[in-house]
Structures are given as C-alpha cells and as structure tokens.
Amino acid sequence: LKVRNTEDLSNLNLEKKLNPSTDQSEIFPFTDKSADYPGGINALRQEVAKLFYSEAVYSEINPVKTNVAFVVEKNGKISNVKAEGDNFTFNRQAEIALYSLSGKFSPAVINGDPVRYRFRLPLTLNIE
Fold first, then answer.
1. Whole-model pTM?
2. Which has the closest alpha carbon to 89: 45, 120, 123?
3. Domain, as residue range, for 44
4. Using CA atoms, how far apart are residues 14 and 4, in angstroms rounded to an integer?
5. CA 37, CA 59: separation in Å to the nearest integer?
6. Predicted local distance difference test score (pLDDT) of residue 82
7. Which residues contact 12 (CB under 8 A, 6 or more apart)?
8. Domain count, the chain
9. Residue 74 sits in a domain of what CATH number?
C-alpha cells in the first residue's frame, strides 16, 4: 500500500522535473470560458473515481471530504494539484488521481486567448 503510493508520487515528481511549467503567468479564477474536461464535470468525477485507490483510506469519520485545487495550463494539462481536507491519505490519493487523468482539459479562455485557470473540485468518499 505505502509502496504503491510512494511509487506513484515518485513518478509524478519525476514527470514534473522533466516537464516543468515554463509559463508562470497569471492564474485566473474567472474567465470568459472556463476550463472543461472532455465530457464535462461528471466525466471528470467518474474518471477520478476510477483512478482513486480507496482501499488506502481509513477514517473513523464518514464521509471523508477534501477540496482539490489545481491549475489547468494553457495547453490543457494540469499542474500544482493540492488537496486540503482532514484525512492525509484521502488528500494524497485525490492528488494522485488528478495527476493520473488520461484526458486533457480544454483551456479557459479570455478574449479568445487560452489562459491558466484555477480549478476547484470538492470530493467526498463514503466509507462502508
């Protein structure tokens, strides 16, 4: 369990080092057209749920919640994924799932130009 998470995070950190974001321009929370995942928000949630390793999460509090914030870059890739919630493992699993998405977002647009966009995604896990 720990090995899998460590390997996943190591691979993601290596990818970040090999492909650093060269565009450190402004990040916009509001745009003319928001960034969108192929198939919409429901498709994004379904993909995250498929990639999420829920067996790693233990909590006496049910449901477990986190808010994931990330940047959708001008090219549709995501960066700077940060999950904030009460359960450390749930937060890390959410970050790994987001970094592991296979699809690229369509970027946000202002005045017809793609821009970096701050995306927020609340997640909840019911533990049975």
1. 0.76
2. 123
3. 2-125
4. 15
5. 30
6. 96
7. 96, 99
8. 1
9. 3.30.1150
